Known about the structure:
By secondary structure, this protein is α/β, with parallel strands linked by helices. Helices cover about 35% and strands about 20% of the residues. The strands form 2 sheets. Strands 1-2-3-4-5-6-7-10 form an 8-stranded parallel beta barrel. A two-stranded antiparallel sheet has the order 8-9. A hairpin with a 4-residue loop joins strand 8 and strand 9 (about 205). It is globular. The termini are close together.
Amino acid sequence: MHLNKLGIVQGRLLPPIGNHIQEFPRAEWKLEFDLMENLGLTHIEWIVTDTSFKTKTLNLDVKKYGSKISSVCCDHLIDNHFYKKSFLKERLEPACEFAIKNNIKSLTIPLLEKSKLNNFNIDSAVENFVYFGKKYPSLNFSFEIENNADISLCLADCLPNFYLTYDTGNITSCGIDHEIYIEKVFHKINNVHLKDRTVDPISTVEPGNGDTDFYLIFDILSKKCYKGWYTLQTARSKNGSETETISRHIKFYEKFIRS
């Protein structure tokens, strides 16, 4: 494993907008690419939130940065209607077109919170995501699923261009055994969100201060020769100290990634 696979979710190198943990930094998004490179990071996961979607962020021309954008993170899909085809046509289709237009190869689909897969919505979700997966075969769809391996594979195993974003902190807070999870879904993991969380109470914390066993996780990923992305989605610290915070988090994780 090498640091050239380490990147960050957009906005984390800049002060938060409003009270949002992550939001599209409309005024300074170009600056973040310079900050990223200064820290030795190689990619950004482009964020689309409900606000930025409504303010036409997907109309931007970012071809110049396409090779540095690992994925379009579709946070604007976190909604009670995420599994409906009409909703996906309105929200996912523009994200797919944006990715293709700007030479971005992947989309991250967070199925969390209001969009969590359950027995009520899973059949419709599978049917409708498969429709879009087939409509856009040149794109990789990486689902971040806050549930066990079996539920995750119900969707991820449907198409060759379906993958999983493995969020280390979310799996911890769900009480899921990391070793069992990785063993079952490894063939589909193409992105690892690096985050530390506690179980009780559930909270995102400074890397190394939570309940996530990174020694175990990286040992398994190393033995399995994981080749995909690593993306920092770590806890924020004091406003205005974002560069120092992320630099500290890089140092925490690089001892694992270089091993």
